[in-house]
Amino acid sequence: MQEAFAAALNLWQKTGIPENPRPWLISTARFKAIDTMRRRARFDASQQDLLLHLEAQSTESPQEEEDIEDDRLRLIFICCHPSLPPEAHVALTLREVCGLTTEEIARAFLITPGTLAQRIVRAKATIRDKGIPYQVPSPQDLPQRLSAVLQVIYLVFNEGYSAAAGAEVTRGELTGEAIRLGRLVCELLPEPEVMGLLALMLLQESRRAARTSPVGDIILLEQQNRALWNRDQIAEGIALVEGALASHRFGSYTFQAAIAAVHAEATSVAATDWRQVAMLYDRLARIQPSPVVELNRAVAIAMCDGLESGLSLIDGLLARGELANYHLAHSARADLCRRLNRAAEARSSYEKALALTQQEPERRFLLERLRGLE
Question: Which is the most buried residue in 52, 109, 262, 310, by most CB within 10 A?
Fold first, then answer.
């Protein structure tokens, strides 16, 4: 490979970079290796078998082009093997390919880091015991892995959109990488749900500049300067979600993108069509039941049917225990209690949220809310 790179530096200055540099480099490296093996084979008979193998490879597939050209996307498709349980291969891919920590991934799955770590250990053991090959899936096998690949990209984006811990609200390197991968998958497999996921990410990312103050403090949706929203990303996102909806073959990502589009098109929180948002969450909950979806629906219900109605739904969710360690559930409850002038309940919920979050801007925001109740 080093010799291939050296050859490229010399040749490409004169001829320009080829349209597909990766296959060029691999093929050149293979031929360089064959030349080296031929020289060695004159003195070492053990090199002969390797030489024959390399020559056979070069004859069978010279300049072979791969369907997935991007290195990280190729690795994601490789790791999302259907022989592994979905929750296992998604967790494994996020940890080993995308570089998220065990704690960050556990937060996304609403489980403990210890439980998540065991999933990854079991996934690795399954790969070893079943002898699952490390190879790029064939073009006809890509659709079978698409759902898991989209979930990986979605969870990478979510960690970038709202960091699990640290000094920043967002991590632009993760949201940018997720959007880049989403575009590549859209080119590779332009299915409605791929379009829906890309639309969702663009619409959410469009607000990033308005979500924090110059010193990094959180700015809630109702206080955001909408002039800072990225209108190009909004326009592209809305066009994508409209295309996905028109197909009538969409799923959960498209519903989430449609909700984001309602917010993106509203001129203010008060002007937002909260009834439509609640209806879309109803539809989303039917195809992808989730306590987080129910929490978001409860907030929308509070906005259109009254704070008491939303609070009742959140109390019911918390009573079930699934969101007991989810700080945003306690924060949402605290906010509704604050608006209803139920200061003692608001304080208790804010304190629970504060104990559960590890992100510094969120901690500052919650502490400020607590001081406001004094």
Answer: 310
